[in-house]
Amino acid sequence: MIMERDKKAEVLELIFRATNEELYGIYPYQDGYLVHGVFNILRFDGEGRELWSFAGGGEVFCTRDIQKYPPFKIKGDTIELYDWNHVHYLLDVNGHLLAA
Q: What's the N-to-C CA distance of the chain in angstroms?
């Protein structure tokens, strides 16, 4: 059990170093992690290797009204995003833009 926690801490440290930006959250997802950064959404595998990243239209993934426009939401096999200007993005789990 301690070894698992040490491994997880090591992976999270790799993710923090790899992102080079402020992070709003790191979420376990399938066999890795989804990362909600200020300007990027990223996916890492369970070893801390970046699988993909997505940058929107240049605005931060943060909103003034998080109840109406939640900036980051995992919905099954999709990731729903809103940026500061309330532009909506829908990604699949591979980082492909499905709708904007």
A: 42
74: tokens are 């995992």
38, 44, 59 from 19: Cα distances, Å: 10, 10, 17
Cα(49)–Cα(71) distance, integer angstroms: 24
Residue 100 CA to residue 59 CA, distance in Å, equals: 14
SS3 85: coil
Per residue in 14-31, pLDDT (tens digit) is: 787 777 788 888 899 999
21 SS3 class: coil
Are residues 85 and 73 in contact, defined by beta-carbon separation less than 8 angstroms? no
pLDDT band at 1 (very low <50, low <70, confident <90, very high): very low
Residue 76, token pair as written in the block: 């099954």
Contact 80, 89 (CB under 8 A): yes
Q: What's the alpha-carbon Rg for the chain, to the nearest Å?
A: 14
